Amino acid sequence: MKKFLVAFCVLLLLGSVVFAQGQAEAGKQLLKVGMVTDAGTIDDKSFNQGTWEGILRAQQEGLIEAKYLKPAGTTEADYLKEIGNLYDAGYHFIVTPGFKFETAIFEAQDKYPDAKFVILDGEPHSADYSVFRIEPNVVAVYWAEHESGFLAGVAASLQIQEGEFGFIGGMEIPAVQKFNWGWQQGIKYANENLGTDIAIKAENVLYQGSFDNVAAGQQIAASMYDKGVDVIFAAAGGVGVGAINEAKARATAGEKVWIVGVDVDQYPEGVLPSGKSIILTSAMKYLDRASYDMIEHELAGTFPGGEVLHLDATNDGIGIPVENPNLSDDVEGQIDELYAKLKSGEVKVAAEQLPGLFK
Length: 359
What we know:
Elements: H1 2-26, E1 31-36, H2 47-60, E2 64-69, H3 76-88, E3 93-97, H4 102-111, E4 116-120, E5 138-143, H5 145-160, E6 162-169, H6 174-193, E7 197-207, H7 214-226, E8 231-235, H8 238-252, E9 258-263, E10 279-285, H9 287-300, E11 308-311, E12 318-319, H10 329-344
Parallel strand pairs: 1-2, 1-3, 3-4, 4-5, 5-11, 6-7, 6-8, 8-9, 9-10
Antiparallel strand pairs: 10-12
Helix pairs in contact: 2-9, 3-4, 5-6, 5-10, 7-8
């Protein structure tokens, strides 16, 4: 009987230890990751949404606790206010999508030295651009948008073979310009090397000037389609949503028009009642992968603070969707071959405007 009581007590003790460990594990403080949105909404089908999806993935895997705040405006003061609100709520790992955060992060990196910041498509600098400085609590991430735009240009050209293309940009900033320049080079490459006959006219390359004017995007797209443009590459956030809406309306009415999406795979946003989509392909930069990877680095103790990271074909940072019902197997195969050449350096895309691209 004594032996039984001793054994029983030991089991109770062991069970208490395991229960206590489980409680400690359950009460473990998760990394609190915050995001401040740029112009537009969290479901903008573009930059904000792509960034947030990477953060959400980490939360769904039980790695973090996530929250986003939408500022009242898009000034440095607006951004700093929401950064401060996140910090005060315990969110000391903050992701900011877009170049508009550059001066805000320049201030925040000093104001909150125990916080970590990720800025996508920009790096911290003073308001007058006289000082660029990135502290160990900040990492900046850039993409080779020209390579992504190039692949989309070649893919669209190969699929359409003959016709007219256009481009709608949001603000005329480097990231959007590089999409445009790569798009034009992709069209030229396909015409000169792959037997296509695609025209792109200077009048059909426009920057609207914002990322949130949906109505303007629809109007610009309507004008281009009326002039005979078959495919529009819209790198314009909410303005691009307007272009997608116009293409969907025309396709529903029986016209054959297309949109090339941007930043993320926008195929779902172009789906018609028939189940088909007017998104021919998308020029992608893996925003979700970047935000998720930076969270993983922080959790592993390898946060690359003080660095400016460049994502391109060599590190699989850009591309077009691996699967797209609107591209034939032959086109996808040719793009795979071209991607390998980009990755190896055999094919190079210029991050600048080249002469002689318009037809």
